[in-house]
């Protein structure tokens, strides 16, 4: 931490998150581009109102159902997610049975090691996608993100990809996988291509997703499956965009926040 943030500061929580990402960048966990991506996310969080909207809560239910009914679920982790929600990644993996795989756009040995260290410190025992383990390739992708683990994303039927890039999301969907994303921008290609798009901050959404998985585990597989049958991602995206439009119209009419 480089600066003192007074607890009374109206945006103290947001400033702490920014500082942890800057520290993560210095420790090679977060890429420079990850800092820019965070800024994009924050902008959309302002528009949404910095809380979990009802359509996101519905998407979280469907995501919990998808993870619990999957044969081989995987959580894909990048630098930003590792810094923002390390403990939540481990807990979600434990309660849902999903494996953890590191997948990076800007891959280097140094970053892999740094992210592995953060996840291990948070309690991870098995981390896929490190070094030579990422020996398989996703077809049609040119970036380093095409490198995946043959025991993880390659054979996964459900992949959770928080803060993901659009190209890879599209490629994973084309491979026949059910893709769940957490992305604050309902207009991003990732949100548009995914099977289940949680339009929310990963910091809020991961907590809710863990809670939902824990609750849903008490139901039968058949009951859990019902959440997926009724799910319509186009409707969820429309509702998120409508939420922003209505909120902006309201604030424009009020003239203040
Ligand atoms: P796309 O490639 O999907 O069109 P993009 O190129 O704008 O999107 P990427 O860097 O590829 O962005 O992906 C990062 C995404 O993560 C962005 O849509 C950004 O809004 C979102 N994002 C950033 N921080 C958070 C956060 N804390 N919680 C949820 N989403 C976030
Ligand atoms: Mg992108």
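Q: What amino acid sequence fits the structure above?
A:
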């Amino acid at each position: 931490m480089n600066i003192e943030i007074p607890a009374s500061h109206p945006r103290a929580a947001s400033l702490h998150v920014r500082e942890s990402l800057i520290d993560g960048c210095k420790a090679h966990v977060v890429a420079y581009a990850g800092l820019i991506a965070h800024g994009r996310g924050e902008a959309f969080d302002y528009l949404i109102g910095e809380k979990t909207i009802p359509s996101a809560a519905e998407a979280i239910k469907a995501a919990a159902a998808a993870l619990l009914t999957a044969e081989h679920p995987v959580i894909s982790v990048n630098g930003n997610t590792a810094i923002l929600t390390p403990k939540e990644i481990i807990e979600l993996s434990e309660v849902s049975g999903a494996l953890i795989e590191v997948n990076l756009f800007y891959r280097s040995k140094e970053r892999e090691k740094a992210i592995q260290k953060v996840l291990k410190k948070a309690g991870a025992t098995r981390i896929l996608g490190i070094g030579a383990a990422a020996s398989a390739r996703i077809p049609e992708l040119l970036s380093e993100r095409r490198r995946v683990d043959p025991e993880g994303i390659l054979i996964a039927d459900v992949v959770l990809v928080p803060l993901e890039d659009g190209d890879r999301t599209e490629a994973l969907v084309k491979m026949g996988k059910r893709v769940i994303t957490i992305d604050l921008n309902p207009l991003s290609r990732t949100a548009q291509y995914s099977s289940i798009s949680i339009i929310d901050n990963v910091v809020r959404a991961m907590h809710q997703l863990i809670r939902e998985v824990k609750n849903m585990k008490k139901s039968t597989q058949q009951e859990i499956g019902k959440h997926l049958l009724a799910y319509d991602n186009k409707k969820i995206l429309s509702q998120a965009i409508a939420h922003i439009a209505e909120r902006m119209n309201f604030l424009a009419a009020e003239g203040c926040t």
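Q: And what stands out in the fold?
A: The pocket of adenosine-5'-triphosphate (ligand 1) is lined by residues 37-38, 40-41, 44, 84, 163, 165-166, 182-185, 188-190, 201-202 (CB under 6 Å).
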